[in-house]
Amino acid sequence: MTLMLLDSASLWYRAYYGMPDTLLSPSGEPINAIKGFLDMSARLMQRYQPTRFVACLDGDWRPSWRVELFPEYKANRVDDDGDEEEPDLLTPQIPLLLEVLDIFNIPIVGVDDYEADDVIATYSHREKGATRIVTGDRDLFQLVDDARDVKVAYLAKGISAHDLVDRKFIEEKYGIPGDRYALFAMIRGDASDGLPGIRGIGEKGAATIAQHFSTLDEAMQAAANNDDRLPNNVRKKLLEGREYALIAPKLVHCALDVPLPEIDLSLPQQLPTSKEINRLKSEHGLGSSIDRFYSVVESLQ
Prior knowledge:
Helices cover 45% and strands 8% of the residues. With 301 residues, it is α/β, with parallel strands linked by helices. The protein has a six-stranded mixed sheet with strand order 3-2-1-4-5-6, sandwiched between helices.
């Protein structure tokens, strides 16, 4: 009963940059992100054999409650119109990609004022059985839970060489207990999201803190009490960053209480008709990618 949760935007960005932009539909429209997304999804589904599958989306990529906490959240990605910067040739492909998933009756879930990470987190927290989270985003390492068999298929090295992240992976890579990635991340910061972390404390210092403390509040109290488990310079930086430390847990932790729709997450029992498949091929040039995706979904029924 494996559930696969797809960080859809992460996958279509990887597909867009990984596939040549010379891949065009018969009408000359770019289709590289669509073909890559379908090909990668098919390979991952074949590898992990899910019985349930959700394509998770951002309802809002800068949720109001996170921006209220920290106005600079993802501000580095905002374009002149206040939207997220996105490659010109990727934007027009997304509606067609979602249409293809819809034709295949694949559940697609995005919730207003929440990011895809929050949707993924709530599903991984709520649903029973093995869960495989597909993403190129390290933020989701915080959801790894060996006891509940929640692991992350981390795509930084590509599909063929991707890592299946469990707590041992986190321990070996970052030198911290495997259940403390969120603490490590909130101290280290994340430049891609415009998050400074505790200024002056880098990855090494964040790991030192996470080795000794399970929460940021514990670490802040230790700094205030001159706990000798913290080097002097780390104690000083923690105390200087006390204002950010107050908001960091809510800012960095994924929400676990997203109001998800009540839908069946099972892989579809009814596949597209040959007429629909032929239209996707003839109108959009999706050919072998559609065939491959169809074949894998059919095999999992």
